[in-house]
Amino acid sequence: MGILAFGINHTTASVDLRGRFAFAPEIVIESLQQALENLHGGEIALLSTCNRTEIYFHGEASDEQLLGWLADCKGVALEQLRDCYYCYRDQQAVRHIMCVASGLDSLVLGEPQIFGQIKSAYAVGREAGTVGTHLNQVFQSAFAAAKRVRSETAIGQNPVSVAYASVSLAEQIFADLKQVHALLIGAGETIELVARHLRDKQIGSITVANRTLSRAQELAADFSANAILLSDIHDHLPQADIVISSTASQLPVLGKGAVESALKKRRHKPMFMVDIAVPRDIEPEVETLDDVYLYTVDDLQEVIQGNLRARQTAADVAQVIIDQEADSWSRQQRSLAVVDTIRAFRDSVEKIRVEEVGKALLSLQRGQDSESVIETLARNLTNKLMHKPTTRLKQASEEGRDDTINATQDLFGLDKKR
């Protein structure tokens, strides 16, 4: 029995195939319990995200058994799964789980969300009753490794998303975002991420402008923001210290004239603008205006690429940490493995002791000489304790197994010269 990490991810399977193997949160517990029935016991946990589906298992299941269960569970041809799965065992499996938890195996290197997702997979497995002692030890080791990577490297400190890079640049322009008002143009996924990052940075206030007011209001409600129509931007632009735009418009939504007018009303107080859209939402001529800091998606990509290089450097350091933690887990498992051997050895010796002491006490009750009883007790204990080791050593010598003889000499601290 051993630890196993089995699954597919963004490097081995297409997005369509990953979608077919995804598990909705509401069916994970039932799926885990069904898996154990099909695999005839063990321990199991399941991680399912948009970029990966992975099974963490402790037991005697083979690759084929796991392949068969997952393919059958999802109604996908076995050959499709066989072409894109991977499987790691024991220390390599634990090392893989540590890399996943640390964001080292993510599509976006070092992204932090996966740590919460893997903690959730552990919690759901505990709730389902399918995570026991062995997987618990693996998860705790993975959490410890991920925390070390976060605290001892800079892998998560350099933004590598357009949304985060926009907010990070804003922080460089404004000393205190608590006094700043942001105008976000659009209400798609990127703007939602920008709003989330701004809120995390404790931005003073946010206004969301969108072509559809209901969608702007829906997004604004999540961030205690104000919602306006796209057509009302010009009235609100003078109050905006930060403008970040990402719409699907084929024409610019902000021109040089509108920005110039807003700057006059602001008495030329600086304005930070980020145009994430392709094609552009903000006319290029805006960049020629004094007191405007305008960045495009191409500018952000330069920032992101530089940060990715910094993350890769941090990832190299993180791999050393993962190796250390994986080795630590292996040492711990080896120390735990010998516990069972020590317990069995102690039990066998105790059995002999109880048996011989019982005989000695019976002899004393019959009136035999105490000195003779003690001598017999000591001799019987010595003979019985020596019998099996002596027999095994003779057999090892006959078979030329010097390693067994050397191990015995080392174990008992014997003088090899005699």
- The poorly predicted ranges are none
Residue share in helices?
55-70%
Instruction: From the 3D structure, determine the CATH topology of the largest domain.
Output: Beta Polymerase, domain 2
Major sheet size, sense and barrel closure: 6 strands, parallel
What value does the Rg take, in angstroms? 33 Å
Major sheet strand order: 7-6-5-8-9-10
Number of domains: 3
What is the N-to-C succession of helices and strands?
EHHEEHHEHHHHEHEHEHEHEEHHH
User: What separation lies between the terminal Cα atoms?
Assistant: 42 Å
Coarse structural class: alpha/beta
The CATH architecture of the largest domain comes to: 2-Layer Sandwich
CATH class of the largest domain: Alpha Beta
Number of helices: 15
The overall pLDDT average reads 91
DSSP, total strands = 10
Q: Can you say what the CATH homologous superfamily of the largest domain is?
A: Glutamyl-tRNA reductase, N-terminal domain
Q: What proportion of the residues form beta strands (DSSP E)?
A: 5-15%
Shape: elongated
Protein name: Glutamyl-tRNA reductase
Keywords: NADP, Oxidoreductase, Porphyrin biosynthesis
Subunit structure: Homodimer.
Family: Belongs to the glutamyl-tRNA reductase family.
Question: How would you describe what is shown here?
Answer:
The protein has 418 residues and is an alpha/beta fold. It has 15 helices and 10 strands. Strands 7-6-5-8-9-10 form a 6-stranded parallel β-sheet. It has a 4-stranded antiparallel β-sheet with strand order 2-3-1-4, with helices on both faces. β5, α9 and β6 form a beta-alpha-beta unit.
